[in-house]
Every structure is written in structure tokens, then in C-alpha cells.
Amino acid sequence: MSTGSTLLITFDGLRRDRATAELMPNLARFMAEGSNFVNSRSIFPSETRVAVTSTMTGCPPGDHGVVANQFIHPVRPEGLFRTAEWEDLELAAQAGQLLDRETMGQRMANAGRTMAVVSTATKGASRMMNSSAHDLAQPVFSMHGAPVSSPDLHEAVLARLGDIPEPGAPNGSRMTYATSALIEVVYPRHNPDFCVFWMNEPDMSSHRFGVTAPETQEAQRICDENFGRILEWWKAGNGPENILVMSDHGQITGRRQLETLDIIPAEFGRVAIGSFSSIYLDDRSDANKARVVDWLVQQDFCGLVFVTGENGEATAGALPWAAVRNNHPRGADVGFTLRATDCSQSWGPTVDSCRFAAWISDGGGMHGGLNRGELSTVLAAQGPAFRAGFVSETPCWLPDIAPTILTAMGLPLDGTEGRPLVEALVGEDPRFGIAPQVEIRTLQAEHRGHEQYLRQWVVEGQTIVDCGWTAGTGAWDR
Ligand SMILES: [Zn+2]
């Protein structure tokens, strides 16, 4: 066990306000007894593969370049670049156009440390947990087997635990199987300095049954029971020094499905439509961007709109991409969220709602946008590197996780954009235990009565998005 060795556990899609003592007693106790970051946030768009990549590079999407779950990428000139698909990611990797920043896997290899991944997520999300794992001979175990899993590890897990159970909803047997793989095979066999363990619940059940549905509560209980098994094993002296738990985003309730995905005039250019939608314009002039925004803000599905003018000029009715830290050359010219409830004053798992594009049914959970219910995540840690019984109110977000782990390991942070959460760290470093100053500001844009607001925190010069909402003719209940 090396100094700072860390196991990072993710509960996919868990809203912070659903991580209750009633539904997840082991997690609630862990949060209370360790360092608990009560103002933790996801990134934008609040989508899984973007979130995974931000976590593993310590950067927001504007720096790492995986700008959405689906977007337009030069390696797929005829269609959408789908980050859930191994093939698309492989194409981009071969072209050297997958990531602009180093991953935790590469950093561990450079430092002579080891990393492992155990994942129940999609092939694409599992790939982005350590995108060059196979080249670096770092072990991966995925429910999908080849090409995601390392063949020898996959065989070792199946030899010990039998065949991988079929997926279910809730996906309980797979959560339990993956937990066994982690503590019975991966740690005894590899003893990784850094290990990622990813549960794809409660995300899966929440999408299908709803954020507060009994099935989703059952999924949370199963996640928590398995988390309890990990804690018991860890407290008996096994595994890493430190455990961090996180969620990648929350979910809000999908209401009023769009009647069609064909909502953007074809003359504008190429599009990817979802909770977060992007338009890659044929005519990229500022005048045309203004024309497209003028049309968008009059549509009843339109939430917040993002555009960056040619020389950084503002466009009426839109906020700049930099405001959400998603300004990247592979990013869209115009992006927008689907309309959602105003989360500025009141929010909660039975309140937060949005229009939705497809593939769930009415009342199912959704994410991708800027509602507080989508952005508010779980982040907590225990171990010798972290303060015990510490509630941190300092805002933080997914890109801060890698710098924090690297700092606990004594490794360099160069190339990360996040901030090591020094206020929670224990040790000789004079920065440790001291919380930085935080400013709050609200950006706004208005056009044709469509108002949009974005609340940001500024921590040591870096902005973190708290949440965004619309009002006026852009209000939810119109
Ligand atoms: Zn997710």
C-alpha cells in the first residue's frame, strides 16, 4: 500500500438530496464521519461520459475535449460521435483526437504507480475511466468483457465468481458481483495505488422508474449494502489508505416529451438533440449565430443558450461557452438545454423537472442540463489523508477530484484545471486545512423576454457552475 493510495467509488446519477440515512445508511455515516463536501457539483453538460472524463483528467470539458455524450467529431463525418460506443472512441484515440489532457491512468504510469478499473457502466464510460488502460497494461474489469476488460483479469474474475449475471432493473446482481470482483479479485491480484469502482445505479433505475420511485430506492439500498461490504473489508485493513465516494451528476424528472427530435431547421446545420443539444452551424458568422439564437429563444422547449462570438463577442439572448467551462474547438457553435423548472429558490427530488427528448417515459429521470438537481452531487472522503467529521462548504466540482488524489499521493498536478481540496487534507503542507475565499456571481442574458441566469462560484479565480435557470417567456410553466 503506497502513500495516498485511493479507491474512488461512484454512485452514478445519485442526487445529493437522495443520499439520505434512510435510503443509504452506510453512505450517510461515511459522509458524516469523513470529509463531506456539501456544495459539490457536476460539470456541464451533466452527462456521464463528460463527467467521467472530467473526473479522470481533472479538467472541465472545455479543456479535455469530450464536450458531450454525443457530438460532431471529424472522425465521424457522416453521423454523430457517440461516446457510449467503443468504436467511436477508438477512432478518435487513433487519430489523436480523443483527449487533450492527461488521464489519471497516464499519471499513475508516469509516476510508476498502478491503477485498476472495475465498472458496471457502458463500454464508453468504462473506457473513459482509463482511456489508455490497455496500452499501459493497467487492469480493467467490465461487465461487457472484451474489448473493455483486460482478458486475463476477466478470466480471473469469472473463474472465481462464475458467469456475469444478466443486467436487471434494479441492477442489483451486477452491483453485488462487481463488488465481489473488486474485493476478492482486483485488490488481491493487483493492489492498485488508484482504483475506480463504478456502480451504474441508481442512474439506471432512476431513468427508468423515476427519481423517487420504489425501484430506484431499492437500487440505492443495494448500492449501499455493497458499499457497506467494501467498508467492512477496508476497515479490516484491506485495500487502499483512502476512500473517496462521488456521484457524477443527479437526475430530475422528465415531463412532456418533445414530439419529435426534428426540432431544429435543417438549414442551420448539423445537430445532436438531447437534454443538452448542440448545433454545428453551416454558416458560423456572428450574424448567423444571432439569427439562430433569436429563433431558439422563441421555442417553447428552449432553456439556457450558449454561444461564443468570433472575437468573444456576446450574442443577445445567450451566454458564452466559457461561462460553463465548455469552450472547446470540438464544441458546438450553439448549445442549449431543454426547458426545466426554476431551481433558484425552490428545488427537490419531487419538484425539479424538465422537458425531455426521447428514450425514457414520462416521469422517468433525466440529466444533462443545469438544474440544481442535475448538478448537485455526492462527494465525501475518509482515510489518513482526510479530516474526520469535517463539513466543507467550499464549492467544488468533479475536476477537483483528481488534483486532490494526486496531492494526497504527493504527485504533480500540472495540466489539471481543478483545485486540490486542501481544506479537507491532513498533513505538513501549510495549505492543508485552510479553506479558500469564495465569490458568488450571477450571469444573465435576455432576448425577446426569454431570460436566463447562471449562478457561478469563483474559487481562486476559477469558476464553478452552481446552477442555471430560465424565467420570463422562458419560464417552465408557460
Ligand atoms: Zn451518470
Could you explain how this protein is built, in words?
- The chain has 478 residues and is of the alpha/beta class.
- It folds into 2 domains: 6-252 and 372-424, Alkaline Phosphatase, subunit A, CATH 3.40.720.10; 254-368 and 439-472, no CATH class.
- The chain is built from 13 helices and 22 strands.
- The strands form 6 sheets. It has an 8-stranded mixed sheet with strand order 7-6-8-1-9-17-2-18, with helices on both faces. A 4-stranded antiparallel sheet has the order 11-12-14-13, covered by helices on one side.
- A hairpin with a 3-residue loop joins strand 11 (269-272) and strand 12 (276-281).
- The mean pLDDT is 96.
- The structure holds zinc ion.
- Zinc ion is lined by residues 12-13, 48, 203, 248-249.
- Pfam families: Phosphodiest.
- One of its GO terms (molecular function) is hydrolase activity.
Using brief descriptors, characterize the structure shown.
globular, Alkaline Phosphatase, subunit A, binds zinc ion, 4-stranded antiparallel beta sheet, 2 domains
